[in-house]
Amino acid sequence: MPTTIRAIRLFRRFSMAEHHVQGSFAFTCTAAESALIEEAWQHAADLLGNFTPGEPSAEFLAAFMPTDLGNPFNGLLGLFDDPAFPDFGAEIEIEGSVDCVVSIYGTTDFQPGPIAELIRHCCQESLKVKPVGFDWSYSCSRPLRDSFGGGWCAIFADHVEFETTQQQLARRLAIFAIAPVRDPPDPWIDDPDHPSVDWIAEVLNGDTRLGYLDWTLARIEAGDSADALTVPPPA
Is the torsion defined by CA of 97, 61, 124, 21 positive or negative? Predict the structure, then answer.
């Protein structure tokens, strides 16, 4: 098949691919915090739809301090990669009156970054007691390379942490490059770093070697580098 025709077929195959980012989670916060989340969410929706937002509350202005006094919403807009498109890509539901349960979910264009920062700005009191976390996935309607995966987010009062499955996988593969996996040890030959006298002293399994291999592998996996015990085996 000519290269040009093959390229055209590949283009047709992948050009109409649809990418999706999905997430769904819930967390508990105070009534005041949930009200602030709801207000910020509504302001973002109004701005996205080119409607005039309502008057921002004092709590909102304190949480999303504007950098331009002429625009009280630019603190909120700063959460988004594109301030002209303030879309969380999700729906929100709030239940409860004292301890409120906030549910956030989306199946197409879920935005982990803006959602995480929204929670951090609005839920300082709750986050100082307990952090909030969620995970998400991304996929593609066609088998495009590296278009499937996901990630997680941990929200603390003073910062937000993100990691993707691709980052985790790359880190795990790098461990092998630094320290290649060793052949499984022979259960009848002592591992020099984990001698059977240590195992006997710790496990007290009599004069058998039952369980020694599992014990050794666990310590190798954990990277145990402690000095070997010198307790002699039982007589």
Answer: positive
48 versus 190: the higher-pLDDT residue is: 48
How crowded is residue 61: how many other Cβ atoms within 10 Å of its Cβ?
14
Strand spans (E) along 11-159: 19-30, 91-95, 99-106, 132-140, 149-155
Q: 3-state class of 6 per DSSP?
A: helix
What does 108-151 look like in DSSP terms, one character per residue? SB--HHHHHHHHHHH-HHHHHHS-EEEEEEEEESS--TT--EEE
Rg (CA), the chain: 27
Could you give the strand order of the β-sheet that contains 91-95, starting from the edge strand earlier in sequence?
91-95, 99-106, 19-30, 132-140, 149-155, 160-164
pTM for the whole thing?
0.71
Structure confidence at residue 232 as a pLDDT band (50, 70, 90) = very low
Token pair 């301030």 in the structure block, residue: 83
Type of residue numbered 40: A
Residue 12 CA to residue 38 CA, distance in Å, equals: 43
How is residue 152 written in tokens?
């997680």
